Amino acid sequence: MSAPSAPPAGGSVRDRLQRAAFDLFDEQGYDGTTVDAIAERAGVGRTTFFRAFRSKEDVIFPHHDDLLEQVKARLDAASQRHSLLAVSEASRLVLRHYLDEGELAVRRYRLTRSVPSLREREIAGMQQYQRAFREYIRTWMGDELRAELMAGSVITAHNAVLRRWLRGGVDDPEAQFDAAMAQVLDLFAERSGRGTAPTVVVVGSADDPAAVGAAVEQALRARRD
Amino acid sequence: MSAPSAPPAGGSVRDRLQRAAFDLFDEQGYDGTTVDAIAERAGVGRTTFFRAFRSKEDVIFPHHDDLLEQVKARLDAASQRHSLLAVSEASRLVLRHYLDEGELAVRRYRLTRSVPSLREREIAGMQQYQRAFREYIRTWMGDELRAELMAGSVITAHNAVLRRWLRGGVDDPEAQFDAAMAQVLDLFAERSGRGTAPTVVVVGSADDPAAVGAAVEQALRARRD
DNA sequence: CCTCGCGTTGGTACGCAGTACCGTAACGCG
DNA sequence: CGCGTTACGGTACTGCGTACCAACGCGAGG
């Protein structure tokens, strides 16, 4: 198996199947491509396809389950501090995953725009993130409706940035993500008469905590002026 | 046809099919019920089923297209007044439809909660309303992201009220709807006394959530000085 | 070397959703 | 009565997804 015998070259069976699927989708469209055709091009049997992917649609959203688990884990890890920032960071996880995928994400985007059933599935997937956020937010906030609005807004902002990037012509989507999240956080900030409650929003992309701290200081200084 | 010949009694063919479908779904579950079984119980042929409903799922969401058109028409009619209130009223249209359905809406809710594919479809349907709202809001508002947040919030609020009613134990859902929409309107109302709201924005991301939390704490301490 | 077990693959058969096509019975109309 | 229209039923087909079974490769142990 490690030595490819005849025509099928490169990568694991799963990878070959995914490449074959996307290529065929581009050539003949999604509905015009049968699972048999995908398996044939990948040089494997039809049964093997359904062993590698649960369904034909699953070829297009292979990492969704993993990503959702990552998001939930991230939220659980931060569950004691209770902040919208944790939600924002979990959402950033999703964005980064798409950015890392690069061209593949764009091809998938084209497919989801043109095939209704795939569009549905993508939307349903996003709703699962929103659900995770909602439940997390509710753990520290009493107002149920407000929790839903928050979770929905984070997802909406994330999707807006992601969509712009997928459509092309965006230099640094993560900066846009920061701006969008800042807008959301500002939206849900406590109103003025309400006493103090200073909302803190961090900007930048520093993986180093000290750098984040510095950015905070800078933001505070800038705001004082 | 107006005179029922043998066993199938009552209403149009469409109604008989829908009743038969929901009854069978309750008895044997959605996946355990075939289209043949539905047609048989309704006393018609299989072909007739697909003439009355585009698909098996369509039996459960029969009025969706009509409702969506109503919503769009409502928005178009109000397109000159340009207000979030118009969106709220259009959303109320959807709520009222469910309330009028009564018990049928509850049965559908039970189904959508238990069958993933139906859940997906319902979510996708809601997304279409959100899309209509978003496009309407964008016609009078420049900020694209803010338009998305508004549309999403209206849908979220609507869904929250509807869900509570579907779960049972809510006396007057329309009053709750009013309250929820008021909260949304308040959320997007222009801020008063903008200067007194000390909103500090942090930007950036640390892969370690604890580090971010620490940075925020540090920023807040610094701010108190 | 053989063979036993185990995991992976491919092939076949089946159930079911959805589509296309055709035959036919019921109805209205001149 | 003849004719067109319409609604309905039946048959056949494509394609996804599942279940089951046979064949092959491969390492462990005799």
Salient structural properties:
Tetracycline Repressor, domain 2; Arc Repressor Mutant, subunit A; mainly alpha; disordered N terminus; 10 helices; 225 residues
Task: Characterise the protein shown here.
The structure is a homodimer. Chain A has about 220 residues and is mainly α. The first copy, chain A, folds into two domains: about 15-60, Arc Repressor Mutant, subunit A (Orthogonal Bundle), CATH 1.10.10; about 65-195, Tetracycline Repressor, domain 2, CATH 1.10.357. Chain A is built from ten helices and no strands. In chain A, helix 6 (about 105-115) crosses helix 7 and helix 8 (about 145-165) packs antiparallel against helix 9. The radius of gyration of chain A is 21 Å and the shape is elongated. Residues about 1-5 and about 190-210 of chain A have low confidence and may be disordered. The structure holds a DNA duplex (30 and 30 nucleotides).
> Given the structure, what is the number of helices of chain A?
10
CATH overall fold name of the largest domain in chain A: Tetracycline Repressor, domain 2
Mean pLDDT of chain A: 83
In CATH terms, what is the architecture of the largest domain in chain A? Orthogonal Bundle
Name the quaternary structure. homodimer
Number of individual domains of chain A: 2
Structural class of chain A: mainly alpha
Measured as a percent range, the helix fraction of chain A is 55-70%
Low-confidence stretches of chain A: 1-6, 192-209
Largest interface: A-B, 63 and 52 residues
Number of strands of chain A: 0
What's the gyration radius of chain A in Å?
Answer: 21 Å
- What is the CATH level 1 assignment of the largest domain in chain A? Mainly Alpha
Main sheet attributes: strand count, strand direction, barrel closure of chain A: none
The named CATH superfamily of the largest domain in chain A: Tetracycline Repressor, domain 2
Report the order of strands and helices of chain A.
HHHHHHHHHH
> Terminal Cα separation of chain A, in Å?
67 Å
